[in-house]
Every structure is written in structure tokens, then in C-alpha cells.
């Protein structure tokens, strides 16, 4: 009852014209960018984060959550119409979505994707509301040793988000940690790695780094490696739209896939792509007609889209309660929270409970707005896929410059953004993932602070990390995630080959 009461208060706080317009704008931007092959919600959130400076925290974060929700769904539009996933999370949608288009059922496929996306998003939102406050209460018992174990575990998810590029991911993570050490030491006040420059005393602002790594690098990369579309889409959607009464036969698939996607999203480093594949495989295994999958079965579209959109709420669970990013998007969202004066973690629920529940309400509201905008504007969103890269690239680059300068009205931030854009381009070109760099930059200072506080409490005795059961458990889990699991996967892949 307490959760329900606070959730109603959250709805009361966010249910106003300004918040609804902000969420709607975020969802609209997310759908538009998600429908552009190669561009992602991560990049869009990085660009729009400076826009939230002048907004109230609940409105600003709700805007970015709208981008998150809309961006995942938007990728399904090009996946269905031209067999080109707008985002990696929509790859599984092509399996049945594009065959439905070739069968003249593009409209049916698009509306199935919309209904399933909204269903999965609402399911994940409800699970988030039920789980997150309870997990935060447990985390409130943490002291410096426990935070050290937790943050070390958070850094260990670099091995998960790096995929097959473990060594390259670790290198990117180390670069992020090194970048986080530039500036004044938070405990002693001694300048570090500033090379005598007063401009470097405050260190690197996170937002220009995020914009450079995720947005500028993407523009440079697509200039050199343009996305080739497999077919042209004329903007005409054919096929009969799915009626609500016909959705009953797909309801179980949507609910099951939504739950699968939510709980996969809770595991740091997984994401919508993995959730969609797992859910698609499970739906095919449980189907009475598995041979129809891959040939234009609407149930396959429902499974993939419900699961990948359900990861939005799931990924927010570790981010909000423990301060650990669940995926690259939430890694950027942590930066957005921090510039609003909100530190993700268990204290967030204690010190800013009203804001947290307003965000919960905002996530549910974003999915409802997604449904409304999808029904009204689906045929127009589909035309976004035809925007030429030579037009889109300069617009995105201009937004990057404006956003980076707006952080502190400093050309130093613009220079940092450009440098990180060039570095990010070469990282993409040579297979270095960008998410580990951001994770290292965000969690690096937290690890250092917890380590030094713990050693101060124990007078330099390292055994404090072993005597704390929670810290020892996190360190053991870190070894399993970062060492044992990658070795097991490598051996398994070797046996398959």
C-alpha cells in the first residue's frame, strides 16, 4: 500500500502539461532516431542531456526516459519495412517482420510491434516499481567496504557489455578509469594529471565525453562506412491493421516475453538484443506451429518486440538501486542523473523518493504515450528511413557542438568532445566498444573513494573486505563474472567450432 500511495503521488507530480509535453517530445525523438539505421537511443540521450539542464529533475529525466522507450520501439519500423534493424535490439524482429511485409502485411506487422512494445514496457515498469524499492532498502545497509565490493562488481560487467571483444573492452574500461582521475583529488585536494593547466583542475565533464564517444564518433563512422539499405520504402503501409479482439491470441506471448525481457534486462550488460533472441527462441519452442516462425508469423514479432522493450524497466533496476548501469543507455542516464544533482543508488530512494516515484510514473506514462503516438503517426515515422545521411550527419554534429558547449559554456568541453569523437571513431573502426569506457569513467571515482574510505576505517588492513560478508560475496561474484564466465564461454565457443 505504501508503494501504491507513493506511485499515486508520483503520477500527481508528473501529470501536468509540461511533463506530458516533455515525455511526448522524448518518445517522438526516440522513435524518429530509432527508425534511422545506425543511430541509437544512447546517442540521442547523450545529445539531449544538456537540454535537461534548465528543466526540473523529474521532467528532465522523464524526457530522457521517453527517448529510451521510443528509441527501442523505433528500431522495429525499418526492421519490418526494409529488413534493416534500426537498432541492434530489433534484429530478431526482422525474422518475421520483413516476411510479413513481403506478404503484404506490413501494417499488421507494424501494429503488432507497437502493441507488443507497449505491453512489454508496461510489464517492465510494474516489475521495476515492485522490485526497486525493496532492493534499495537492502542496499541502505551498505558501508564503504560493501560499496567497494559493489562498485568493483559494477566495473566487472565490462566483460559482459564487451561481448566477444573482452580484451578490447577491458582496455576501453581502463581508459575510462584513467580519464576519471584527471583533476583535483576528491579527498586530498591534490591536482592529478592536469599538466599545469588550470582548465583541467575540474577534470573532464561527463556529458561532452558521452556525446563524443556515442554521437560524434557515429557521425564520423557513417561518413566512412555508410549504412546500406537493402530495399527502398515508398512510405505506403499495406495490410490489415490488427484489431484489439484479435490480440487475444498473442496476449500470452506478449506477457511471457515481457517478463523474460524484464528479468534479462535486470542482469547488467545484457540488453534488448539478447532478450529478443531468448524470447523469440522460447516462443518458437512453445508454439504449436514452430515451422511458421521465420516465414511471417506475427507471434514472432510479438515475442521479439515485447522482450526488447521490456529491458527498459529491467535495466533501470540496477541503475536506480545500486548505481550500476544495466546497459549503455543507462550508463548515459547515470550521467544525466548526476548533472541534475541525483546520485543513483540506495540513498536516492531515501533522499529523493518523490522524484523516483515520479520517474516510475513517467516510465508508465511514456509507454502509454508511445501507443498514442504510434497509432496516430506510424505511417509518417516510416518515412524517416529515407532521410539521406548527408543531410542527417551535419544536423547531428551541430547538436553535438551546441550540447557540449551548453554544459559549462566552455570551449574546453567542445574540444574534449571532438577529441573523444575522434577516439571513439577509431574505437568503432577497430572493434573497441564504447560502453566500457563510460562505465569506467562513472564507476572509477566511486571505487577509489570506497577503497580509500575502507582502508581508513581499518587502518590500512585489507582484510576488511573479506570480513564483510556482502563485500566478499560481491568480490566472489566479480571473479565469476569477469574471469570464470568468459573462460567458460571461450571454451564453449571453441567446442562449437
From TrEMBL:
This is Putative tricarboxylic transport membrane protein. Keywords: Membrane, Transmembrane, Transmembrane helix. It comes from the Bacteria. InterPro entries: DUF112_TM (IPR002823). Residues 20-439 form the DUF112 domain. The chain crosses the membrane at residues 20-48, 60-82, 109-135, 147-179, 199-221, 250-278, 356-381, 387-408, 415-444, 464-488. It holds the Pfam family TctA.
Amino acid at each position: 500500500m505504501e508503494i501504491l500511495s507513493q506511485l499515486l503521488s508520483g503520477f500527481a507530480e508528473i501529470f501536468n502539461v509540461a511533463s506530458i509535453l516533455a515525455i511526448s517530445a522524448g518518445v517522438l525523438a526516440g522513435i524518429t532516431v530509432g527508425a534511422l539505421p545506425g543511430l541509437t537511443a544512447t546517442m540521442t540521450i547523450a545529445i539531449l542531456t544538456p537540454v535537461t539542464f534548465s528543466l526540473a529533475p523529474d521532467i528532465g529525466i522523464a524526457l530522457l526516459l521517453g527517448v529510451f522507450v521510443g528509441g527501442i520501439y523505433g528500431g522495429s519500423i525499418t526492421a519490418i519495412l526494409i529488413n534493416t534493424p534500426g537498432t541492434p535490439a530489433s534484429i530478431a524482429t526482422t525474422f518475421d517482420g520483413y516476411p510479413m511485409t513481403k506478404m503484404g502485411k506490413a501494417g499488421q506487422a507494424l501494429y503488432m510491434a507497437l502493441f507488443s512494445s507497449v505491453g512489454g514496457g508496461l510489464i517492465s515498469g510494474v516489475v521495476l516499481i515492485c522490485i526497486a524499492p525493496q532492493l534499495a532498502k537492502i542496499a541502505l545497509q551498505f558501508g564503504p567496504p560493501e560499496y567497494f565490493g559493489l562498485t568493483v562488481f559494477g566495473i566487472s560487467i565490462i566483460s559482459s557489455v564487451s561481448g566477444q571483444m573482452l580484451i578490447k573492452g577491458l582496455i576501453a574500461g581502463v581508459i575510462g578509469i584513467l580519464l576519471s582521475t584527471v583533476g583535483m583529488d576528491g579527498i586530498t585536494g591534490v591536482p592529478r594529471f592536469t599538466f599545469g593547466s588550470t582548465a583541467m583542475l575540474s577534470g573532464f565533464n561527463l556529458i561532452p565525453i558521452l556525446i563524443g564517444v556515442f554521437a560524434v564518433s557515429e557521425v564520423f563512422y557513417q561518413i566512412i562506412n555508410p549504412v546500406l539499405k537493402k530495399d527502398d520504402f515508398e512510405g505506403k503501409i499495406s495490410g490489415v491493421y490488427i484489431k484489439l479482439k484479435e490480440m487475444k491470441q498473442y496476449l500470452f506471448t506478449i506477457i511471457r516475453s515481457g517478463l523474460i525481457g524484464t528479468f534479462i534486462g535486470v542482469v547488467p550488460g545484457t540488453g534488448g538484443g539478447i532478450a529478443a533472441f531468448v524470447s523469440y527462441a522460447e516462443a518458437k519452442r512453445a508454439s504449436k506451429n514452430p515451422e511458421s516462425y521465420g516465414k511471417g508469423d506475427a507471434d514472432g514479432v510479438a515475442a521479439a518486440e515485447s522482450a526488447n522493450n521490456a529491458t527498459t524497466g529491467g535495466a533501470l533496476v540496477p541503475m536506480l538501486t545500486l548505481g550500476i548501469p544495466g546497459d549503455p543507455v543507462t550508463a548515459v542516464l547515470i550521467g544525466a542523473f548526476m548533472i541534475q544533482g541525483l546520485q543513483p543508488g540506495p540513498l536516492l530512494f531515501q533522499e529523493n523518493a518523490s522524484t523516483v516515484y515520479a520517474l516510475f510514473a513517467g516510465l508508465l506514462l511514456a509507454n502509454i504515450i508511445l501507443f498514442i503516438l504510434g497509432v496516430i503517426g506510424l505511417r509518417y515515422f516510416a518515412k524517416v528511413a529515407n532521410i539521406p545521411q548527408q543531410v542527417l550527419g551535419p544536423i547531428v554534429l551541430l547538436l553535438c557542438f551546441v550540447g557540449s558547449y551548453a554544459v559549462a559554456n566552455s570551449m574546453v568541453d567542445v574540444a574534449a568532445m571532438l577529441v573523444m569523437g575522434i577516439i571513439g571513431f577509431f574505437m568503432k573502426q577497430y572493434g573497441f566498444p564504447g560502453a566500457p569506457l563510460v562505465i569506467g569513467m562513472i564507476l572509477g571515482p566511486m571505487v577509489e573513494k570506497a577503497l580509500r574510505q575502507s582502508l581508513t576505517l581499518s587502518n590500512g588492513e585489507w582484510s576488511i573486505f573479506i570480513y564483510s560478508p556482502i563485500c566478499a560475496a560481491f568480490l566472489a561474484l566479480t571473479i565469476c563474472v569477469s574471469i570464470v564466465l568468459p573462460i567458460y564461454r571461450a571454451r564453449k565457443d571453441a567446442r562449437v567450432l
